[in-house]
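Fold this: Component of NuA3 histone acetyltransferase complex
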Amino acid sequence: MKRKNEDQSDFVANGKPKKRAFTDQEVKRNFRTGLFDRKVLKQYTDEYAESQPYKHGVIANLINAQLLRNVRDEIRQNLHFTPKETDIYKIHQSGDLANLDGLDDASLGLLPSLLTLRDALYSSAFRHYISTVAGAGPLSGKKTDMAINVYTPGCHLLCHDDVIGSRRVSYILYLTDPDVAWKPEWGGALRLYPAEIMEDEKGDNTK
């Protein structure tokens, strides 16, 4: 998605999309209260720096709870998912949500909360936050990917390195039922495995 960093999409009362610039304060209201406090930012930055086997961070309750409920409702009611399968995954996936602005007005009118969530995640305020935590350097927001994956019985995602082109940050936002506490035995947790150098039968080293 290519757009000026300050340009964000919003909705007026009649559901019609219009372009305007979000202030940092407007953006921050879409996240958990207190997330942008310096003490909290330092906590996540320190945790990221000490994480193993690969640098990663976990932020619980990232998004405003009511916004996330609205997003779940819009997804369940208005999005279509296509079965996809490769050598490493079997899932049901939505279309490209980073480019929601390309939808017609009627379709956009059905997804105001999802559009708000997208613009919050790719806002300059949150990009700066993540850049600080990860030490990733400036994140332009000009090249973004966003899709929703649904895992039904039999679906899976195998081990992979998540290295794709110029990607600098990868994220997962879990949209579990807010009224049903997720149980570990249901699966779905992110697992990170260290890479090891192994010598093959020819004496060559491979990762």
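Residues 1-20 have pLDDT under 50 and may be disordered. The longest strand covers residues 89-93.
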